[in-house]
Amino acid sequence: MEPIVYHGKTLTKPITFRDAISAIETVAFTASPYPVFLNIENHCSYEQQETMARHLREILKDCLLSKVLADEFEVLPSPEELKYKIIIRSRRFSKGQVVTDPEDGERNDEMESNSKDYHPDFSKLIIYSEIVSLKSIEHTISTQKCFHSISFKESKINHLIDVDTPEHLDLIKLSKRHLVRVYPGTKRQNSSNINPINYWSYGVQMVALNYQANDRPMWLQDGFFSDNGGCGYLLKPSFLLSDAVFFNPKEKLHDNMKYLQIHIISAQHLPKENDSIEHHDIVDPYVEVFTYGIQCDNTKHRTPSVRNNGLNPIWDYRINLDIYCPELCLIMFEVRDKDRLNRSTFLGQACIPFNALQRGYRHIKLKAKNGNFIHGTLFVHIQID
Ligand SMILES: [Ca+2]
Ligand SMILES: [Ca+2]
Prior knowledge:
Helix 2 (46-60) links the parallel strand 3 (36-39) and strand 4. It is built from 8 helices and 16 strands. The chain has 3 domains: 1-133, Alpha-Beta Barrel (TIM Barrel), CATH 3.20.20; 151-247, no CATH class; 258-384, C2 domain (Immunoglobulin-like, Sandwich). The termini are far apart. It is of the alpha/beta class. The protein binds calcium ion (2 copies). The site of one calcium ion has 6 residues, from loops. Residues 241-368 form the C2 domain. Residues 122-240 form the PI-PLC Y-box domain. GO terms for molecular function: phosphatidylinositol-4,5-bisphosphate phospholipase C activity. One of its GO terms (biological process) is phosphatidylinositol-mediated signaling. Keywords: Hydrolase, Lipid degradation, Lipid metabolism, Transducer.
């Protein structure tokens, strides 16, 4: 039987693995030449894994990363070295087994591979991102190689972050050496999303989002990765890379603190609610400004609404903010139509990394929920000190 891909316990329809890989092959590297990771949650039989490996080789051809770039390596290769490569991220050993360095001579039953379950053709394609179980962060850091990667369910990583002790900082240590991925919990059958900035602040490289959701976490991701030319990769700030710098996302940091003033002056050509001419209300727009970042940088502000004017509403409204960690801060503008009886309605959004904000008078192009630009713009003045 052909291996299939589907999202268990949801209403999504299955497709064949072959079709999924073919689709990926046609769109990979259209946005940038940098490597594409395929995260494969493998529930396939031994025979199906052989089929998967064959499809991967035959469809992706030279793009499939099928051997190490260098035999000896202490750190992962850079995205630059992996251009035009598709990297398989998956398990080679059964869940719960903790694999230690096979060269250190120690063996116990827990470390044995279960070769019955994992077909060698598939296993040998897992090169730079092998998912391993987490016994403890300390154990992973001290025993695992750089190509070992950890996945956290949302609830588990939240628990780790929520603890008051400095243990949550171990997560930063972990993400300095290993690729870490967070995925949404099973409760999110409605495809809602986790707030990725909570995990990016700890250096987590991969935060899995439901792309179909068109919600604020998706706008945050769109904004965050709009930096660096939208190539899909960002260099982490030095405090998430270097052991020499202490960083705690729960503390107010003052070293690089910035003072930000956003003067929301006006908007132009805001779309009509639902873009429908049958809708009789002329929009009554207001602007919400959210900052997202480390804990103390999460704020929310809003202007009053301007009655019956979507063409050129003027707010002349100033927001003053202290941004403690600009490197991890995103500014989100959301324009909404106020309604006295019903809930307000979305009109447009824009999300900009703090470090990409331009000073002075600026027009900000607004986007629809799905990230496509609309005609409407915001006119603002930005001051940073
Ligand atoms: Ca109105
Ligand atoms: Ca209205």
